[in-house]
Amino acid sequence: MAFVSVPKDLSKVKTKVAFNLTRRQLVCFSIAGAIGIPVYFLTREPIGTSAAVLVMIALMLPLFFIAMYEKDGQSAEIVLRNILRVKLWSGKRPYKTENLYQYLEMEAENLAQQDETATTGTMTAKKHRTGTKE
């Protein structure tokens, strides 16, 4: 009996348009063919067949890379843009934190001051009930 594997996350499934290729791959391959084939025929006689094929491959490879590469659900241009943004255009990113211990110390000082003013400035409840003063 034949088994068909079904992915658990159907959002990652890409629809195939023609020749088992996605729309993105078809567009990129078409653009690569529209650039590479005329370059090959125009450069075949002046520089030779081998050199013309190498030039054609060099012009078509970036488009093949853009069509096929995908990492963590991100396409090649998004990954390259993120790399360039971090390497070339990154500004200073100072590491700032909030010192929680400083807030605790300030709170402890405030409580200590409130406790001092409560004990020195007013009578305690026990002394108030008995009617004696300090």
Kindly report how far apart the N and C termini lie.
Answer: 97 Å
Oligomer: single chain
In round numbers, the mean pLDDT is 83
Structural class: mainly alpha
What is the global morphology? elongated
State the total count of DSSP E strands. 2
Helix content: 55-70%
**How big is the Rg?**
36 Å
Which sequence of SSEs, written as H and E, runs from N to C? HHEEHHH
Instruction: Show unreliable segments.
Output: none
How would you explain this protein's 3D organization?
This protein is mostly helical. Strands 1-2 form a two-stranded antiparallel ribbon. It contains five helices and two strands, in the order ααββααα. A hairpin with a 2-residue loop joins β1 and β2. The relative contact order is 0.06. α1 runs antiparallel to α2. The protein has a domain of 69 residues.
Concise structural overview:
The longest helix is centred in the N-terminal third of the chain and has 25 residues, at 23-47. This protein is mostly helical and 134 residues long.
